């Protein structure tokens, strides 16, 4: 599918909001009383319609239609229709009758969505401070949606889906601002106890989210997705998604606008198939700050670790455990381990893969090559730092950061100790990152030199033409430092 048609967004700039969802000045901390979280666990068919149907229509369709879920537009400045029937009482009755509600919020759209009626209702594409304006918009929309949900009696634990219509993905600033907006949307909803969902075209918004997921982008991804892929098949499969992405956390809109009649009542709807399961998660482990720059695993917490020695090891979270990061700590909120551990490190430069710029600045700063604030903007300072790295590692000085440059940068500052099975520590972290940059996969960044790391090292050694020992000694360090790929 090269293009997925949009949902209905009205050409009117001023949208009439029903009194029951007018937003108050603040967000109450009280839960919506009595109603179950929705949709919760649900597998089956759902429909969505621009305006919430009347109670009579809902009763008839409950008895005669194959649908058991209904998408409802609860809020947002880009919402299309006047919700005459949508009230707190309407919500309570549908939930009591066994309907599963899928609340939808329609706010600012992607900056490259050029529909005229969206003027003034777009996500900011300003890249300053890592798209700070777009992130602020995402948080604001989350607050707005939460207020509307609570006015309608939608309890904590309910999912609210952000409706991001189809858009062109050719513009990097459009892609990056949209992803950061959705990341903040998710953070905002979760902070108030709601589940984050995103509706978008399979070929644009959903495809970008899936790429961000597999690239370990560091973005906060939605817990559930609603895929618009009008292939006519009532399932949650889409060719635009990896099979392992959002398992049991998908809705698919498989048919666009059409009229169906059940029990003598006709409604113009979109048809969806739902496969949602509530995944219980453990509460996050608490952490204590160390030197106000990194986090310390509570399991290792001990008074002796608070010594103020200049070269004390710092600890950071990594998938699968904690490992000491002995390089210079980076006092910047954008430089977290999660952001730096990527599945692959692509070539980047001015106007190229802008989502990597902040991560590049973090690693440069960690190694003393970028003594400035991290802003995600490729300017003179970033270019100078990259050239300094390239000249220092005897690599060709150029206007881009190549994969070989990433390999060289990611092993800078190591102790170059001999690494083998069973070894743990920051040197292992850096080698694992460098292997990803070199295009050698099948290894997680854990800080543990396990069997997978040994196999990956052998693959790298064969690729660059040295003896495949599976250990990292002086020669392998030298090849990595020179950025050989």
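Sequence proposed for the structure above (485 residues):
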């Amino acid at each position: 599918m090269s293009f997925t048609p949009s949902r209905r967004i009205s050409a009117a700039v001023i949208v009439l909001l029903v009194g029951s969802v007018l937003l108050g000045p603040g967000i109450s901390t009280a839960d919506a009383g009595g109603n179950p979280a929705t949709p919760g666990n649900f597998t089956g068919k759902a429909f969505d319609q621009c305006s919430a149907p009347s109670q009579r229509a809902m009763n008839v369709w409950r008895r005669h239609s194959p649908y058991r879920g209904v998408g409802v537009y609860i809020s947002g400045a880009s919402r299309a229709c006047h919700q005459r029937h949508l009230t707190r009482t309407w919500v309570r009755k549908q939930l009591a009758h066994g309907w599963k509600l899928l609340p939808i919020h329609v706010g600012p759209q992607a900056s490259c969505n050029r529909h005229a009626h969206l003027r003034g209702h777009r996500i900011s594409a300003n890249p300053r401070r890592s798209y700070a304006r777009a992130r602020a918009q995402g948080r604001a929309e989350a607050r707005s949606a939460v207020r509307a949900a609570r006015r309608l009696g939608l309890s904590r634990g309910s999912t609210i889906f952000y409706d991001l219509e189809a858009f062109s993905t050719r513009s990097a600033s459009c892609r990056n601002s949209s992803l950061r907006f959705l990341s903040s949307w998710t953070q905002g909803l979760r902070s108030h106890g709601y589940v984050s969902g995103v509706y978008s075209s399979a070929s644009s918004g959903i495809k970008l989210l899936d790429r961000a997921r597999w690239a370990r982008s560091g973005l906060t991804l939605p817990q559930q997705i609603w895929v618009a892929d009008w292939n006519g098949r009532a399932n949650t499969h889409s060719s635009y998604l990896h099979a392992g992405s959002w398992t049991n956390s998908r809705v698919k809109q498989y048919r666009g606008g059409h009229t169906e009649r059940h029990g003598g009542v006709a409604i113009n709807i979109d048809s969806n198939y739902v496969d949602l399961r509530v995944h219980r998660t453990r509460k996050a482990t608490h952490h204590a700050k160390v030197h106000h720059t990194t986090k310390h695993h509570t399991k290792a917490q001990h008074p002796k670790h608070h010594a103020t020695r200049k070269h004390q090891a710092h600890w950071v979270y990594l998938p699968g455990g904690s490992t000491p990061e002995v390089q210079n700590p980076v006092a910047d909120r954008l430089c977290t381990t999660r952001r730096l551990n990527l599945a692959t490190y692509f070539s980047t430069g001015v106007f190229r893969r802008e989502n990597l710029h902040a991560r590049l600045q973090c690693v440069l700063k960690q190694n003393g090559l970028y003594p400035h604030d991290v802003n995600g903007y490729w300017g003179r300072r970033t270019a100078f730092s990259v050239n300094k790295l390239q000249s220092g590692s005897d690599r060709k000085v150029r206007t881009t950061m190549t994969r070989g440059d990433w390999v060289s940068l990611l092993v800078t500052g190591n102790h170059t100790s001999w690494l083998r099975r069973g070894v743990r520590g920051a040197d292992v972290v850096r080698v694992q990152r460098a292997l990803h940059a070199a295009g050698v996969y099948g290894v997680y960044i854990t800080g543990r030199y396990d069997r997978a790391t040994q196999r990956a090292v052998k693959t790298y050694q064969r690729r660059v033409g040295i003896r495949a020992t599976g250990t990292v000694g002086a020669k392998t360090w030298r090849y990595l430092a020179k950025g050989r790929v």
